[in-house]
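pipeline: protein-struct stage 2 | run 1193 | cysteine dioxygenase
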Amino acid sequence: LDTVSPTDVGLKEENADDDRGYGLSTINPFNRVARWAQPITYLDIHECESFTMCIFCFPTSAVIPLHDHPGMAVFSKLLYGSLHVKAYDWVEPPQIVRNIGPGHSQVRLAKLVVDKVLTA
């Protein structure tokens, strides 16, 4: 992963449309407000029985919800720009906070293990 670059996967390092969707809310150019959010895009690189390799393209100020990858090992590589990452691990031994009923997972406690900005 250390040697992979944006051009290796067909990406340009800078996107001219990166700021589309932003406009001036007042005369002051420092008060930029999003008019609409650009979508997060997904590029499928390779998929087989053993693994999937893909690229997620996050526009400026994109946010994704907290989520889990059960039964998976995830390797990430930031190709360009910067990204604020927060990662959590389950508290062990499991501390069940509450059971919300049949058909639902139990709510468990997690601890913050990464909270930093990564830069390519």
